[in-house]
Amino acid sequence: MGSPATSMKATRNVVDVSTMTLLEHVNLNVPSHEYILPFYFDVLGCGLDPRKASNLEPDAQKRTIWANAGASQFHLPYGDVAQRIPGNIGLRYDSLDALKSRVVDSDAVKSYEIGVDPRSQREYVKLVDQYDNVFWCRTGESVNEDKVQPIIGPQDTEKWGSYAEKYGQKESECRGIDYVEFECPPNSAEKIAVFYESVFDATTTVVDVGGGSKIAIIAFGKVDNAGKADQSLLFKETTSTLPPYDGHHIAFYVGESGTDFDVCYRNAELAGLVWVNPRFTDDADTLDKARKWRQFRMKDIVDMSNGETIMELEHEIRSVDHESWPG
């Protein structure tokens, strides 16, 4: 009998491909690694990226750690104040059995819940980390299984010593980021969908979830005949007061070539959305600079009819020619 991932992939009927190619990473500042290392590696089963592993050394000047999950990543740089997604993050696993056994006694987990969704009849593990970020873990097809981020393996002890012994694994147990869901203001879901259609030519859907609330679904990669995409950004309307934006960001790839990336940059530039984050060195405020860095940034999601900001969310937008492209 095939694995859940194999069975799902065999029956999937792809009817569309979004121009937003891969949702690669979520960046969350953390005050220390005390809870982060056991949460992402021991509990979630992510792999330690060798490109940032030396930052675990006590005398390292930079403290950023990358926790890898298939083709996806979590970037976890040091920051005085922990950042939090105002919503939740969905993760995929081949099986939840090992995860369920690990959450019980972990000090890195603030709270957890194990249950079955009454609508889909799918089992889930809901986790809240010590910084109040919420993760929903479910079984599902691996995200872009032909692409993978590098991780330190158990055989790498000669180079990485105790890090390989403690964190090394042949592949990440977490198979990738399924979605990131953000709460958004009332009556904004349709405007947000138009924003992604206009700037990225993305495949989007707006769904009425009842109670006068809607959710915008922004697709990444392949979309099947049931409307399920490889990955998604979700924007769910809420009447609750949203917290001030704290600087967390997402990174993703667009198109299939550098030419597609150029089109995306020009769209963003035309809408006045290109932004330079002074925290980083990639000052891509022209097309030539964006080509040099193979990426650029935006910070505002706007109403395309009048240019007013709907919500803040930094986007790190990359070309598939970027050196970190996992394909």
From TrEMBL:
UniProt cross-references to PANTHER family, sorted A to Z: BLR6907 PROTEIN (PTHR40280), VOC DOMAIN-CONTAINING PROTEIN (PTHR40280:SF1)
Protein name: VOC domain-containing protein
